[in-house]
């Protein structure tokens, strides 16, 4: 296999944005993606604020497809029982998007390939060796049929929250809280007028409750998603995944329950899926011959709506840093600049997150809300 100058371990929005940026800059790049192909994932909204980045990457046309629904705003019962509304149509960038995540990631990968990147689906990076000097990295990949060796001068870690490559290279993965999301998707097939997608009205609805918070949002293809957010040590995650356990949690959220009432018998899965959703970062986010992007660098609480947009942002700037190193720029200088950018992005996010959480004061004795009275800091992790 011809040695690329950059190997990106992991795909997703961060890996695709990085691959696209590098390929358009004339850098040889290969994406090593463990997935067999684009798949459904939790993380289905893009806020309007991501439009400038999408325009810079020449990707806005990907969101014109009928597969994606417009996101008109957020409606939140937060700090008070009465819902407050944020209408995106009165903002600078207009509507956001409720994504078909599988189709969106497929389109991103296709755009990267059309720019010249190679995309290796169903390949797992099982080993990495860094001889030092100018030799770069030697990766051992497990493909569908055999083991393959791949040499690269620079590695981008886009493995998501586990940050597998960065941790293997000596970085620490630091979690600032225990937030998890318990998600269930629904299909509107068979629902009458005003009950299905009409009832969802293009808004994401957030509802705070004593033990955490809920959000519901429409998806493409006549579907919707509902997610319960709380700390994983505050409830029985095993029983909560069952239909009965999930509905018991839903009973504490009257606005969410009312919105979902027509959908409740139309779940697409027999049980809810659970995933980490808290704030986390990798320290350092870059080292000799590598850097982390997307959730592998910094991961965000979904309340912030930072996820996909920030993943693509770090993918873009991480690719720029890698290209500078490869062009003969000072390795440590480019990587230090990137690390500072990631730290600044995460610090601004922590300020925003604290502002959001401190608005909710209705349950002063709740362990979930008590943990969020103080601003998280880079020193409060574990």
The CATH H-level homologous superfamily of the largest domain: FAD/NAD(P)-binding domain
Order of strands side by side in the largest beta sheet? 6-5-15-16-17-14-18
Please report which band the strand proportion falls in: under 5%, 5-15%, 15-25%, 25-35%, 35-45% or over 45%.
Answer: 25-35%
> How much helix, percentage-wise, in residues?
25-40%
User: What's the architecture of the largest domain in CATH terms?
Assistant: 3-Layer(bba) Sandwich
Structural class: alpha+beta
Report how far the terminal alpha carbons are from each other: 40 Å
SS elements, strand count: 22
Query: Please, what is the average pLDDT?
Result: 88
Radius of gyration from the alpha-carbon trace, in angstroms: 21 Å
Task: Give a nutshell description of this structure.
With 382 residues, the chain is of the alpha+beta class. The protein has helices at 12-24, 51-56, 101-115, 164-168, 197-200, 237-240, 243-250, 254-260, 307-326, 331-358, 367-370, and strands spanning 6-9, 29-32, 45-46, 69-71, 73-77, 84-87, 96-98, 118-120, 124-129, 137-142, 147-152, 154-157, 172-175, 179-187, 203-209, 212-218, 223-231, 273-276, 280-283, 286-287, 290-292, 298-299. The protein folds into two domains: 6-44 and 99-175 and 279-355, FAD/NAD(P)-binding domain (3-Layer(bba) Sandwich); 179-276, D-Amino Acid Oxidase, Chain A, domain 2, CATH 3.30.9.
